[in-house]
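Async update (no meeting this week)

Hi team, since we skipped the sync, here's where things stand on the single-chain job. The sequence we agreed to prioritize is pasted below, unchanged from the tracker. I ran it this morning and attached the output directly underneath so nobody has to dig for it. Comments welcome in thread, and please keep replies under the output.
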Amino acid sequence: MMGRIVTTVAALALLWLVYATHMAGQAVAAVALLVLGGSALWVYAASRSLAWKYLYPGVVGMLVFVAFPLLYTVQIGFTNYSSNHLLTEDRARAYLLDQHGFDETRLHAFTLHAGDRVQLTGPDGARWVATLGGDGALQPAAADQGPALSMREVISRRDALMALQPRLPDGTVLAYAGLREFGVKTPDWRAAPGGALQESATGTVYAPNRESGYFTGPDGQTLQPGFTVGIGFANYQRMLLDSDFRGPFVSIFVWTVMFSALTVLFATVIGMALAVALEWPALKGRAVYRTLLFLPYAVPGFISILVFKGLFNQNFGEINAILDALFGVRPAWFADPTLARTMLLIVNTWLGYPYIMILCTGLLKSVPSDLYEASALAGASPWVNFSKITAPLIIKPLTPLLISAFAFNFNNFVLISLLTDGRPDYLNTKLPAGTTDILVSYTYRIAFTDAGANFGLAAAISTLIFGMVALMALVQLRLTRAGSAK
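Output:
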């Protein structure tokens, strides 16, 4: 009985919440809330499946926090959504229709007096009195209203003054026009047939252009703000067909792949070599060496990056000080594209090799020791042991992890942002693009910094990045499955 009462109360609360959401103008959110809430009530009140009672929170979380953002991002990639096209067409029209000025010939000066009385003086000298919080009816002013309150008192009652709408005897409604005046509103725009807007002053009609996302006049002049419209595959075509955009984009894409691949390669070579060296039985103090070599992975990455940013400083960095003392050179690490990319690889390899070293250390423990004993009896060299025994036995289980490391570096935004911020930039590009940008940092610049907040184009690039990373994940899963099957 108690369970039915709780279910009924929860259902009524859900219906009220859905209704309130719909009345607030969020129809899609109301439908989503109804579906999620209704399914939750069914699972926990009516369904007899015990498994779904445990699975339901995870499934809903995946839909809300993974599937929905992904689908929303993909959808934005097919629009012109940007800082100039944030609103829907209806909201952009309503915003413009709300714009107004004041008739300069009909301004009424006002003063505020004790008792919240507002005295208005018209252009012809006629004086009227209204009361703050009243219905706006005006009465002829008495000869003396007493001293006017100070400007500080006027400012403190500004909200009440803005809410006051005095009505003149002829029915004209006045509106607050500033700290000293009320006036007659004159709308800048009027609604015209077909959803168009007509300029009040000139009569020019601006029709909605649903291809460009602007209200456009006969001479091609557009109004701000624009509105969001669907543009199909235009953002994707821009990536492929616009030569001014394609050049930097292709370069950044190639550099992203090279950056990820070379980082994994260098980190693997160094990490594997150190892991093999630390397994040498004759080496004393292996635990100390292993601890010291693991420290770059233990220190928070952003701290190491900022330290390296200081070390590579052209004028005051320790690295250039050493190079100047030894070879008489001070490389411009942050100004030269090649040097900047080299610096990124050095820092990222430093941050990544301990992870590979730990992985290889664990994998080396699984290699049978009798193989090395047989190799020693045959007189094999250390290189033969590594190339014929160690590497073949650990490379297969290591491959899926290397793919995941590649995918991580493919989206290594923190390193690029903190160390170079994508610079030095390419010259003469439509959108700011850096020679050290990778796709994710390039997308961030397009969406949020100095590229006009082009969210639609950024969403299209994000969709491309997601496809690539998803493909890497599928390859990793297949290799993991193949490895476990063997």
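Quick observations from my side:
The chain is about 60% helix and 10% strand.
The CA atoms of residues 16 and 22 lie 10 Å apart.
Reply here if anything looks off.
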